[in-house]
Amino acid sequence: MRNRLPTKDNLRMHGIIVEESEAVCPFCHQQCETLNHISITCEVVHKLWMECYR
């Protein structure tokens, strides 16, 4: 994906988000919002997808 999606991690790398606390995943509030996190490792998003496929 070449890091083109405006994840909070990418916004932070470009200086748009300054504080690390602002880069937290809006779903689980546990880890930094990265493409990998929101598509694979976020438990809340995973549960949401599982509900959609039921």
UniProtKB/TrEMBL annotation:
This is Reverse transcriptase zinc-binding domain-containing protein. It holds the Pfam family zf-RVT. It comes from Glycine max (Soybean). InterPro entries: RVT-Znf. Residues 1-49 form the Reverse transcriptase zinc-binding domain.
